[in-house]
Amino acid sequence: MPEPPPAIEARNLRKHYGAHAAVQDVSFRVEAGQTLVLLGPSGCGKTTLLRMLNRLVEPDSGTVFINGQDARSQPAEQLRRGMGYVIQQVGLLPHYTVAENVAVVPRLLNHAPAAVAARTNELLTRLHLPPERFAGQYPSQLSGGQQQRVGLARALAADPPIVLLDEPFGALDPITRASIRREFRELPELRSKTMVLVTHDVTEAFELADQILLLDAGQVQQLGPPRELLLRPANDFVRRFFAAEQLALQLRALRLEDVLGELPEAINRVVTNNESDFNTLPLTASVQLALEQLSHAPARHSGEPVVWMRVSDSTVRPLTYATLMAAFGRAVRRLAAED
Ligand SMILES: Nc1ncnc2c1ncn2[C@@H]1O[C@H](COP(=O)(O)OP(=O)(O)OP(=O)(O)O)[C@@H](O)[C@H]1O
């Protein structure tokens, strides 16, 4: 059986504005259900690249394939109706109510009115905008965060398999931004979607990406999973881009299973299934989470706080600040040296 084509493939895309090369020979693939984050400094070409995927910008050369089909093989409007598109400015229609804004694309696609109404209510409820309060309101009556959610509901209304997002949380303050991002990540609606998301926020990129494409001056600097860019930067630009937040990102990116082999021999404890004494962490927990737990953990006999890591069904192993941080340092060096 031949492999299915990627949901999105960009091949050798280029775009010039006059003499300025906004995007230079960029290629990538996004497999179905995966999230690609386009990351880079202001003006590096992220938005131009994203807009080439739904043909709001036509490339000078190169090709976009959607499910193996050249994006130019259908009219641009039809292509766009099959893709959700969320932008920072939200772009809600001011004279339409919230419900009417959400229903724009399903109506264009001639979905049955009852189905459109049911879908609108479902999405507003999921996005914490109770329809009985919000459906009849106008965009000007909503806060920025609420408008952003309506924009997301609108992009998802026709259940498109692909969603493009351009700085979708960009206009929000940091606290609202973090909480909407959390909701967004947990939305069952988005689990199976193929997404391409533009941001210049490194933490956001690490939270949401399966793959990151880091751009500078229209050129790909590195493409890969977040931890690969962090631990094995391809060049100085990549290294410098993450330098300021390197430690925080490493603590989130490394899991206890990465540091397990670096821990000193310790006495494992046997636990029974019904023993609830131990606040245990799975091996998939991040080092960051273990440190957070340690900060709340009671001191043991030695006087040091201890948390427990589950190494098998019946055994747990102690972690202290000292053993965890020493093992973390060794694991970072080991992973950075691996090919
Ligand atoms: N319509 C246009 N006409 C002329 N130049 C443009 C146009 N659109 C973008 N550019 C230029 O192309 C370059 C890339 O712009 P783009 O908006 O893709 O960058 P970006 O990485 O998304 O930036 P930001 O993070 O600031 O939104 C910039 O130098 C920009 O000035």
Shape: globular
What oligomeric state best describes the polypeptide chains here?
Answer: single chain
Number of strands: 14
**N-C termini distance:** 31 Å
Rounded mean pLDDT score: 88
* Helix segment tally: 16
Instruction: Compute the CA-based radius of gyration.
Output: 23 Å
> Low-confidence segments, ≥5 residues, pLDDT <50?
none
Biggest sheet: strands, sense, closure?
6 strands, mixed
Bound small molecules, by name, code or SMILES, are: adenosine-5'-triphosphate
What is the helix content? 25-40%
Spatial order of strands in the largest sheet: 6-7-8-3-9-10
Structural class of the secondary structure composition? alpha/beta
Structure description:
The radius of gyration is 23 Å and the shape is globular. The strands form 3 sheets. Strands 6-7-8-3-9-10 form a 6-stranded mixed sheet, sandwiched between helices. By secondary structure, it is α/β, with parallel strands linked by helices. It has 16 helices and 14 strands. β13 (307-310) and β14 form a beta hairpin. 39% of the residues lie in helices and 22% in strands. Residues 17, 20, 22, 40, 42-48, 200 line the site of adenosine-5'-triphosphate (ATP).
